[in-house]
Specification:
The complex is a heterodimer. Chain A is α/β, with parallel strands linked by helices. Helix content of chain A is about 35%, strand content about 25%. In chain A, the strands form 3 sheets. In chain A, strands 6-7-8-3-9-10 form a 6-stranded mixed sheet, with helices on both faces. By secondary structure, chain B is mainly alpha-helical. Classes of the chains: A alpha/beta, B mainly alpha. At the A-B interface, helix 2, helix 3, helix 4, helix 5 and helix 6 of A face helix 2 and helix 5 of B.
Chain lengths: ~325, ~290
């Protein structure tokens, strides 16, 4: 298998600006990026960062205020319907057609894309088999669990053989097990189909473990874009220190911890305290000294993309 | 979902045989795909209808069936044979074109507005159809075309019903096939586009109220049970009802089916029907596209 991202450029976004009518701010504020065949590209950021707006424009569902988006060489504004033949979309919520069965959803999707009756039947059968949905073929889609519905949506998005696949928060509502299973499917697709996959997420774990490259977005802008490893290396000293105390921390202790040099944020849940740091050198002894005899346990986690985000914005991802 | 399906390749041989080759002919194929896609959008609506043919029949048949049963079958039997007579013609004759018109009109309105408002609402299940590789206006037009077919089918079902049930004699003569066909087709499209407009503008939680509030006055003031000309006795009503598109459809059908009864001249009803259809189609396509495109 060629290295991820070594394929041809499938999605190109140049200087994209999107401002919604009546809004004072740009939802997307000058975003440029390129995604290649065989690459999983993640847009990571908090709600309102402009991730979904970016892919809405690329998926022909929103008109750009400025900038240019081409999909496999096709301008998405000038040739919307042609572009739609080259892209597949999986949305966060289940948008499967409730009036049709699982099998009919796939069949009619194929027909929408010009496949003959026979081809559409064959293709939807193949997809049902491949995505392990054959036994649910005749079921109504509102009977599907969240994980199965996402699998059916993925099958549908791929039915017309797109070259770019957009996944908008694909695992946001899934249980951990379904999430892992969907990740596995997406990885396989990337490898076997040489698809360019663009996914939005506010889960740093998802971005870290699934994506070949990650663009961290905030306020409509891309703050930084690189492989997850390179991003984490860039803030090598950052870490999360977790303290387990005998009792929930007093407001005073809370303030003292927050005041320490290198501490970016303190989160408390019952007697557990998460200290997010940007520079942990020499910090752990200071933390221990502050907490004193109230400390039961302490652990230091490795650098995550959340640390990267904090060091870039001074805020937590979930703020 | 616990199991991870095995990863075998989804693409048959040739599907990925070089991107150049794969996409080289796409543009040339675009028109074939657009027409196939348009047909498939209609086929999807047909499949959904076939899942529940009884809903179609009930919403088509029930209202005219009850009307003709009570007013043109029961009334003559209980000694009110002259009820609703106009220009010496029985109510059955007077109301037949109107009932066909209202069947066309409300079939189209319901077939488009109710599902559309739902699909644009919470479930957003319209998504896959608007992502079909056709311009958004065509996806909307497919919806309206199929609803127009349903309207015409409704007319074909209601016609024999209101012709056969009445106990009083009914006088129908087709004065003009062209007027009949033109009015029925134009009325069907008008109803579909009006449904499109309502379905894209009215929120899901308000759509049933809008329907309940709109259907009754539109029917009762739609020249369904009386000809427009007979309203000259109450001049202000005659003027007010001109705002109701159903009036022009009822009157055009009246001109085609019951020419001996007073009716609006076709030079007035048909062009007005056409202008209204075009205007509503234009507005509805705009609101549909606005709803789809952020």
């Amino acid at each position: 298998m060629p290295a991820p991202g070594s394929g041809e450029l499938q999605l190109s976004i140049e200087g994209l600006v999107k401002r919604y009518p009546g809004s004072e701010q740009n939802a997307v504020d000058g975003v440029s990026l390129g995604v290649h065949a065989g690459e999983i590209f993640g847009l990571l950021g908090p709600n309102g960062a402009g991730k979904t707006s970016t892919i809405s424009v690329a998926a022909t569902r929103a008109r750009p205020t400025a900038g240019r988006v081409t999909l496999a060489g096709v301008d998405v504004v000038a040739h919307g319907s042609l572009a739609r033949r080259r892209l597949g979309v999986v949305t966060q919520v289940n948008t499967l057609d409730r009036s049709l069965s699982v099998g009919e959803n796939l069949y009619f999707h194929c027909r929408f894309f010009g496949l003959s009756r026979r081809e559409a039947k064959q293709r939807s059968s193949d997809l049902l088999e491949h995505f392990d949905l054959a036994h649910r073929r005749h079921d109504r889609v509102d009977r599907l669990s969240g994980g199965l519905a996402q699998r059916a949506q993925l099958a549908r998005a791929l039915a017309h053989r797109p070259s770019v696949l957009f996944l908008d928060e694909p695992t946001a509502w899934l249980d951990p097990q379904s999430r892992l299973a969907l990740w596995e499917l997406i990885r396989n697709l990337r490898e076997r189909e040489r698809l360019a996959v663009v996914l939005t997420t506010h889960s740093m774990d998802e971005a870290d473990r699934l994506c070949d490259r990650v663009a961290i977005m905030d306020h409509g802008r891309i703050l930084v874009c690189d492989t997850p490893e390179a991003l984490k290396r860039s803030v090598a000293t950052a870490a999360t220190v977790e303290l387990r105390l005998k009792a929930p921390p007093s407001p005073r202790l809370f303030q003292q911890l927050e005041a320490l040099h290198g501490v970016e944020g303190v989160l408390a849940e019952e007697n557990r305290v998460k200290v997010l740091t940007s520079a942990r050198d020499g910090l752990v002894p200071q933390l221990i000294a502050k907490v004193g005899s109230g400390l039961l346990d302490l652990s230091v986690s490795e650098t995550t993309l959340e640390n990267v985000f904090i060091s870039l914005t001074g805020r937590k991802l979930r703020d | 979902m616990t199991e991870t399906p095995t990863a075998t390749t989804l693409s048959e041989s040739g599907a990925h045989g070089g991107a150049q080759h794969r996409y080289g002919n796409l543009r040339a194929e675009q028109w074939r795909i657009i027409s196939a896609s348009f047909a498939a959008l209609i086929a999807r609506d047909l499949r959904v209808l076939m899942h529940m043919p009884s809903t179609f029949l009930l919403r088509t048949v029930l209202n005219p069936l009850m009307f003709v049963f009570v007013f043109t079958y029961l009334y003559p039997h209980i000694g009110a044979a002259r009820f609703g007579q106009i220009a010496g013609q029985s109510l059955a004759t007077v109301a037949l074109p109107g009932l066909v018109a209202s069947a066309i009109f409300f079939q189209g309105l319901t077939a488009v507005a109710l599902p559309l408002s739902m699909e644009f609402g919470a479930t957003r299940e319209i998504e896959d159809r608007v992502m079909a590789p056709v311009p958004y206006a065509l996806a909307a037009a497919a919806k309206v075309c199929f609803s127009a077919l349903q309207s015409l089918l409704a007319a074909a079902i209601v016609f024999p019903l209101v012709y056969l049930i009445p106990a009083t004699p009914i006088h129908i003569q087709i004065a003009s096939w062209s007027t009949l066909v033109l009015a029925a087709v134009m009325g069907s499209l008008l109803a579909g586009f009006l449904g499109l407009l309502l379905g894209t503008v009215v929120e899901i939680r308000k759509i049933s109220i809008v329907f309940a509030v709109a259907v009754v006055p539109l029917t009762f003031l739609g020249c369904v049970y009386y000809p427009w000309a007979s309203l000259h006795a109450v001049r202000w009503v005659q003027i007010v009802v001109l705002a109701n598109p159903l009036v022009y459809l009822s009157e055009a059908l009246r001109a085609a089916l019951t020419p001996t009864l007073p009716h609006m001249a076709t030079w007035a009803s048909l062009p007005t029907l056409t202008v209204l259809t075009v205007a509503i189609a234009w507005a509805a396509t705009k609101t549909f596209t606005r709803r789809v495109l952020a």
